[in-house]
Amino acid sequence: MPRIPLTWLAEHTELPAGASALQVATDLSRIGLEEEALFGAQVTGPLVVGRVLELVKEPQKNGKTINWVRVDVGPEHNEDADDPKDPQPGEERPSRGIICGAHNFVQGDLVVVSLPGTVLPGDFAIAARKTYGHTSDGMICSGDELGLGPDPDDEDGIIVLGRGHAAGLTGEPGDDAVALLGLADEVVEINVTPDRGYCFSMRGVAREYSHATGASFADPATSVQLPQISAGGTAVQLRDQAPLQETEGCSRFVALEVRGVDPAAQTPRWMARRLTLAGMRPISLIVDVTNYVMLDLGQPLHAYDADKVVAPIVVRRAGPGEKLTTLDDVTRTLDPEDLLITDSDGGEGARILGIAGVMGGESTEVSAETSNIVLEAATFDPITVARSSRRHRLPSEASKRFERGVDPQLPPAAAYRAAQLIVEFGGGRIASSITDEGRVPPPVAPITLPLGDAERVVGIAYTHQQVRDSLEKIGCEVEEGPDGTLAVTPPTWRPDLTIREDLVEEIARLVGYATIPSILPTAPGGRGLTRAQRARRDANRALAEAGLVEVTSYPFVGEGIFDALRYETGDARRDAVRLLNPLADVEPLMRSSLLQTLLPVARRNLGRGEESVAIFQLGTTSRSRGEGSRSPVPAAAQRPTDAELDAVLAALPLQTRALAAVIGGASGPDSWQGEVTPWGWTDAFDLAQRAAAAVGARIEVRQVEQAPFHPGRAGELRVLAADGESTVIGHAGELHPAVVKEFGLPQRTSALELDLEALIASAPAVVAATPVPTYPVAKEDFAFVVDQDVPAAAVEAAIVVGIGDLAEKVHLFDVFTGEQIGEGRKSLAFSVRLRSVEGTLTAEQIGAARQRCIAAVDAAVGGVLRA
C-alpha cells in the first residue's frame, strides 16, 4: 500500500495549515481511498541544535575511549544535571554535559542533541543517566538514531550540520532540529483498489485530494519542460508481438542517456528522507532518483549501466529454456509468455537485461563505478506484467504499477525528470538525442452517457452541472450531443474507465457517498432460514453440545496426503481438483475429503500443548469430473446462452457439504473421582447418530474396511433412500494405527465423516408430532444369536416389524462374540420399550408381543433367542 508523506503531498496540492495525517486520511476516505495506517512524527520532544564547547577524551579500563562533551543547547535548555561536584563552585557553564562514544566531531561543531524527554524512532525515550562517572544529560544523535540512515560521510554517523545528512543546513544553539531535519513529517498509508493504479503516486493522490476538498492541484508531469531533443539515441527494437501472444507486450519504449555522472555523488538528504517515509530504502543516487520519480509521477523507471549495454536494446518474448539472474540474485527459468529486455552482447537480442516491468538483471545493474547510464521508461501490457510477476513470485514496485495500468503519456516526462535530478545532484550531461520507439495508444472511443443514467443507477437525482463537473474534474473530455447525451473520453491515466457504469461510479464518488441515503431494506414476512440451513445449524449444535469444538481449515492439500491416509490406487478420493494458481506450491489440490485437512488441524493443536482433541468442521469437499472437464469461457459482450451455461455447470467439480470430527485422548478433565474415559470408536458412531437425529434422519451402521479407518473398528453410515434402498453417506470408527502415528495423534483416536447434504435430504420434510403417552411402559430384553455378517440394524428392523405398534423404542445395548456363541456367530442384545395408546398392557399382550418378536427375527435374519 502506498505511503504518502504530507510534506511531499503538499508540493502538488494545497493542504490546510497544520493539516494532520488523520485529517488528510479522512478527506481521502470520502472519495474512496481507504486509510490503512497513520504514522506520526518519528521524533517528539526537545530535539535541538547544540554547539560543542568542550570535548575531553577519557580512556576506559575496557580499552574504549569515550568523550565527555560540554554542549551549548541554547539559554532555554542549558540546565546542568551533572554531579554538582563536577563543576567548580561558583562557576557557571551555560551548557549540558553529555557522554558520547563517537569521534567524528570536534570542538566548535554544530550537532543534533536529544534532551531528556525526547522520544526517538523505535519508542526510544531519552533521559538523564549516570554513566562513566558523569551524568549524561541527553544524547548527541546519529542519522541512524533519528531514522535518517547512516551518514554517508562519517562511519560513526554523528550528524554534524553542514555535511553528510545535514549538508547545507546550519542553525544556532537551541534551534528546533525536528523542523530543521524534516523529522516532523506525518505519513498516511492508504489502500488502493486494483482499478485505481494511478493512486500509486503522489501525482494521483494529490489529484484525488483536490477532488475531495476542492484544493488546487498542480500536475507535476506537466511541469517538466521537455527540450527539443532530437530523435535517435540508443537503438531499440520492439519484437514482442509473437503469433501466440494475446496482447502487444510493449507499446512504447523511451530511452535517454546521461553521461559523466559522479559515481560517488550522494543522494540528497531530503530525497533519502522522502524515500524512507514512503517505505523504500535509499541505495544510491541513480537508483534513488528512479524510485523517487516513480513514486512522484507513477511511471516506473529502470537505469542500466550504459557501458555494459550493447545496442540495440531488443524487447521480445522469452525463448524455450532461457534463464535470467535477477537483481535479487535468484536465477529464474523463463516462460515463453515472459516479456524480456535484451541487448546484443554476443548477438542480436542475445543477453537478457531483465523481465519487462518486473525486475532487471544483475549483468547491467548500476554499481558504485557507474558513470554513464541509460534510463528506460516504457509502457508495458498490464496482463503480461501481472502474469510474469505471479509466475516468478516476484512482486515489485514497478509491477504493482504496470499491472494496474500506467499513463502512456508519462515516459518522456518521467525519463527527462529523472535525468535532470541525476545531473543536478551527480553532475554529468543529458544526451542530445532520445529514443522514443513505438507509439502512444490512441484515445479510447468516447463513452456515450445519457444524462439520466447516473440517477437511474444510483437512485438519487444529479443535476446536469454535477454530472458534467464530476467528469471534467477527473480529466475527461465531455461533449454534449443534441439528444441530451454526453460523449465522454476518459484521460490517459484512467484505463479503468471503459463503460458508462464506470462513469456513473465516478459521479457518485465525487459528488459524495454521503449524499446517498442509507435505506434499510425490509425483509419480506414469512421467510427465514431454509430447511437445509436449519438442519446444518442443528447438526453443528449437536456436536458442540457433545463437547466438541468447531474449527475451520483451508481446503488446500498436497498430493502426499493421499498416501498418508492410506488411500488405495483407484480410490475415488484421489480424483482431486488441481488449481492452476495455488496459494502454495506444496498444496496444489482441493480436498476431496474433510479429514484431509481436519487431521492436520488436530496435529497442530496437539503440537501447541493440547493433550486431547475433540474438534469438528462443516465444510465443502470437491471431486474432479475428469481430465476432459474444462469449462468454456463465454464472451463478455453478451449474456451466455443456455447451452454455454449448461457447459460451464457441467464442468464444475462435484461439490458437497460434509461434516467431520476427530476425537482422541481424554474426553474431559481429570477430577478427584479419577481419570476420565478416553474417547473411543463407539463415541464416533454416537456423534454420527446425534448429528442425524438433530436433522431428523436415521442412520444405520455396517462394518466395513475403509481407509483411513481401522479395519476391525470402523463402519459405513447408511440412510434409507426414498426407493427403499440404503445409501452410504459416510464412515466412522477408529483411525488406522499408521494414520494415528503419521499425524502424531493419541492412541485409539477416532473420527467420522458424513455427507451432510445427503443426510439432510434423507430426513422427512415434515416431522409428525408424537402424542404424549398416558399409559405405563413395559420393558423387555432380547438377546439374539445371528451370523457374524448380519447387521444390527436388520435385527432391529425385524423386532419393530414383529412387535408392531406396541414397540415404542428399541435400543442395542450389547454385542458379544466368543466360543460360547460359536464360530462365525454373534449375540445382539436389545432393550425394548412397549407401550399402548389404548390402555395398560396386560401380561398376555406382552407375552404375545414377545413371541411375535422372536418369530419375526427368526424369519428375517435367522436369529435364535439366546438362552
Would you kindly provide a written description of the structure presented here, covering whatever features stand out?
With 867 residues, the protein is an alpha+beta fold. Helices cover 24% and strands 26% of the residues. It folds into six domains: 3-41 and 185-213, Phenylalanyl-tRNA Synthetase, Chain B, domain 1; 47-180, Nucleic acid-binding proteins (OB fold (Dihydrolipoamide Acetyltransferase, E2P)), CATH 2.40.50; 230-438, 3-Layer(bba) Sandwich (Phenylalanyl-tRNA Synthetase, Chain B, domain 3), CATH 3.50.40.10; 447-514, Phenylalanyl-tRNA Synthetase, Chain B, domain 1 (2-Layer Sandwich); 531-624 and 654-762, Bira Bifunctional Protein, Domain 2 (BirA Bifunctional Protein, domain 2); 778-865, Alpha-Beta Plaits. The strands form eleven sheets. Strands 28-31-32-36-35-34-33 form a seven-stranded mixed sheet.
Q: What is the tally of helical segments?
A: 21
Enumerate the spans where pLDDT stays under 50 for 5 or more consecutive residues. Answer: 82-91, 242-246
| Terminus-to-terminus distance | 80 Å
The number of domains is 6
Query: Order of strands in the sheet with the most strands?
Result: 28-31-32-36-35-34-33
Number of strands: 40
Computed structural class: alpha+beta
User: Would you identify the CATH architecture of the largest domain?
Assistant: 3-Layer(bba) Sandwich
Report the major sheet: 7 strands, mixed
Give the overall pLDDT as a whole number: 88
Bin the helical content.
10-25%
Please name the CATH topology of the largest domain.
Phenylalanyl-tRNA Synthetase, Chain B, domain 3
CATH superfamily of the largest domain: Phenylalanyl-trna Synthetase, Chain B, domain 3
Provide the CATH top-level class of the largest domain: Alpha Beta
Characterize the overall form.
elongated
What fraction strand? 25-35%
Q: Please compute the radius of gyration using only Cα atoms.
A: 39 Å
Enzyme class: ligase
Cofactor: Mg(2+)
Subcellular location: Cytoplasm
Family: Belongs to the phenylalanyl-tRNA synthetase beta subunit family. Type 1 subfamily.
